[in-house]
Fold this sequence. Notes:
Layout: E1 4-7, H1 12-21, E2 25-27, H2 31-37, E3 43-44, E4 51-55, E5 61-66, H3 68-81, E6 86-91, E7 94-98, H4 101-112, H5 121-140, H6 147-158, E8 168-174, E9 180-192, E10 197-202, E11 223-229, E12 234-240, E13 246-254, E14 258-259, E15 263-275, E16 281-284, H7 286-294, H8 300-319
Parallel strand pairs: 1-2, 1-4, 2-3, 8-15
Antiparallel strand pairs: 4-5, 5-7, 6-7, 8-9, 9-10, 10-11, 11-12, 12-13, 13-15, 14-15, 15-16
Helix pairs in contact: 1-4, 5-6
Amino acid sequence: MIVAIRIRGIYSTALTRFFLDQGMKVVSPSDTIIRRFGKAKGLVLVEAHDVEIVDLDDMEGIRVQGESAPVDAVIKAVRENFFDTICRNKTEGSAELEFPFAAKTALDELRNRVLPTVPRHHHFRIIASDYVNLLEEKTLSGRPAKRESVGRGMEKSLIWDTYREGKEIKIEHVKVDGEVIHLSEGVILEKDFGRKTLVLKRSRFKGRTKYDGLGIEKREGDYAVSEVQEGLWYYTHTYFRDDGRLIGRYININTPVEFYPDRIRYVDLEIDVVQMPEGKAFVTDEEDLEERLKAGYLSKELMEAAKKTAFQRVETLRDE
């Protein structure tokens, strides 16, 4: 079955390249896509489509809709090639696909095969779409070797230059089913653009009266120091009493954190690591991760990556 796809949105160039490589047709392309791809095999100027792809409202992924079998073929192709893709709200002929860190990175490289593209292109487009396109066009045209340096400058100006000590940052803890939990905000203690790290202090805890996994009571004056680094499949919350006594550590396993000017964002992968104050470390909620696999939200490869990360963190903590 050759599927005819109509694509619109910030992922259109990368996905056009991807679906053409898959032997599918991209139909009714925009003028921009026609200009970029010319007479590429499979690009059809006028034809009815089986599947339509548009951005999600938050631009963190795409909505796929159309005839049931072609939609299923598109979803299958995407999930097999971008292993961390999250699939949610799937019905007959429709689904939402979120592209976390690794998927966006792969899409950046696909787009770079068509025209010079900075690393983190799709991430930056969520922040300042027109600016990113214009700057790439002006600075990379005929100078593709500059993509790394231009991208680094773009990342610094769009994100890291907005961070300062004392600034409050939101934490978007996104569940695989799409629920967005806003954890208590963090105040920046340290930032390091070179290492792509933030250290946050959090002191306004929400939700339950005990700390997840630790089972230890929350008290007035408690605070956490949260250490976040780009590219890692986890980040660590270390909890303290107001006098500095250690309460314990909670290591969240997630898709690598993405940094925005006002927030950090990641998809929570259910499984976590807990370290008690006396040093004992263990994995929790492994069965919840497996349930999400059975429900179709994530791939087996993504589940295995989450488990591997969790058990590696336990071993690291035990060796410290």
